[in-house]
Please model this.
Amino acid sequence: MNSAIETKPWAIRVEGVSKKFGLTLRQSMNYGLRDTASKLLGKNAGSNGVLREGEFWAVKDVSFELREGEAMGIMGVNGSGKTTLLRILNGAFSPDAGRAQLRGRVGAMIAAGAGFAPMLSGRENVYVNAALLGLSTKEIDDLMDEIIAFSELGDFIDLPVKNYSSGMHVRLGFAIAALSRPDVLLMDEVLAVGDLNFQKKCFDHILQLKKSGVAIILVSHSPGAIWSVCDRGLFMDRGRIKEAGLVEDVIRAYDDQNALNAITASAQFDQAVAYHDVSASAESADYGHTQGGTGDVVCNSVSLLDERMDLTANEFQFMQTIVIDAEFSVSALQENLFLRFTIDAMNYRFIATLDSHEQGLDLARIEPGHYRLRVDVIRPNFRPGAYKLNVGVSRKGLGVHLFYWFGATHFIIKHPKDKFLYADSNAVMHLDSKFAIEKLQPLDASNIAAKKLHCNG
Amino acid sequence: MSGQKTLRTYEPLGHALGLLATLGLAWDEIVFSRHVIWHLFKRDFVAQFRQKIMGYCWIVIAPLMGIVPFVFLHRAGIFNPGQTEMPYPVFIVMGMGIWGFLTSAFSVVSGGLQNNQDLIMRTNIPKITFAITGMANLLYNLVVHCVVVAVFLLVMGKVPSAWAILYPLALLPIICVGVGLGLMFSVIGTLARDLNSIMATFLNLLMFVSPVVYQPDFEHGFLKAVTIWSPFTYLVDCPRTLFVAGYFPHVQGFIWATLFAVVVLFFGIHSFYLVKDKVAERL
Model:
């Protein structure tokens, strides 16, 4: 934390906050009625600190402190408790244990556009939404021109909101929330609004607010957005804090967890598919979802090894050599055989191929028998994430697969400690490059204006 | 600087607040949210008349349309309302109007949280605000009702009494009962959605043992006792007679009924504050 921030007073203080919910509507209703009756009878309801049957912790024992001018990004997969925590901070949910304190006016971007009536004009709706954000009528009058200018709605401000495009709607909501001069700003995935210029304006405004001492909490799935705004991060998993600290470290941990989750989800999917294949008719077994082929060659097992210890592994460091260890059975003589491994990323298929023939292994004549294959994939430059390994066997001149196995095994590449690979979660390969920059000549003011015009045009 | 900023603290309520504490809290929160109440009222008021061919005329037309079936049944000789001190159309316009304040107060307050669930989840406005936002509309309707009734009386050849000036005050107790019941059911209604409609049906049944569309003069002992002991008998009949004839027919009954209304209102506010924290998560 930088020392200037350290001297500032806290704006948000959260101490051991927990919140529980019922799993089903019926349980929720039963407990609700029971708690209500207890409260009305003057008893302490809800056995706040403990779970009852059918309840779960949506947020459990969360503590942190945020000072004025600090920004914290909260990350986590769906259902990890981010939104519940934000709603507790915004006063919608009351905590079952612990305490949350906020100092100053709270501007909640989750309230952007709240209370808009479609039949009313944008201007009329500004009054409603701004009042909901805690502004008085006088303050709204003073801010009106600024809101219209920021939202870039111009004359459309007097058009009924029902005729607004979704972009105009969000822009107006964002403008009101952003200009409401908060001391604490709570945001939930709202930075991707409007066109690129408007998004840039939003980012600039939020950074300006931060500079002026506003404490910001941003909940997002986008590491890029969080890294742009926040200095600190909080990674939540099943309601608990899994990692808290510098934003880069938290993003790394989040990325690694995402990769692990992808592997688990994929394995469960494969299991379900395999079950489906088995329960389907026997005829389809050879042409199933995940495995198939003529049966002359079969890959019995595939595992990945950590070359340093020769142990089976599924998690590898960035640029660490991966060893593929596979066993094959050949039931009939094969000529000009080739063995192939392909790799899928989370969002893309076949991002890389390892082919025995391409890599120089000549399999001109393979007698029937059992074989073991070892492939050393040397320092692969996959970016952090989850990957799937597929197996294929064929031979020259044959139009079909002798054997294929989709999703034979999975592995994840962990985030490196010495690099921060934040730029694009969709990218799969890291190309080591050298960047260099030199100044050719300074631009005068008129040149800069002309360049900007060119870019916008 | 930070010392001057408002400090918000959210924590589980460890102990039950006393009645006076909840009344004080309710007052503070309503004063704090007065801008929101005003803007939400304006929003709903303006929005309900936009894109309607008769626009603001509906303010007058809507209450008159409600009495048409009863006047028709009366004129056709199918329906005998009993002995009334005033022309039957006046009796029913006022009776339905007064009963309407009870049912509207109940429905706008009890449905206030459910109708504003999006705002409850997204803003940090005190929840009492959403429960009573509809009340602004109700108070506006009270003004309209007074004017419509006065004009209607003149049309029927009767002049409102000078005591009619106290009519809005005399209506406050029945509105308080509606608000109190509404506050109790606003929270419970978010837990079990059918409770509000059960209560609304019960209020509709209660109308038929109250002097709303006819003068209840039952021979059956139980029904007679219900009519005598029901506070609604006095909360409906007294304001109406005051407006038309200029006197209170049952002063003692009205005082007891008013005390009943105050107790219901206070208990409604108290129970609302005891359990309001459970609202958002059940919506």
Q: What stands out?
A: The two ends of chain B are 38 Å apart (CA to CA). DSSP finds twelve helices and one strand in chain B. Chain B has a mean pLDDT of 82. The longest strand of chain B covers residues 7-10.
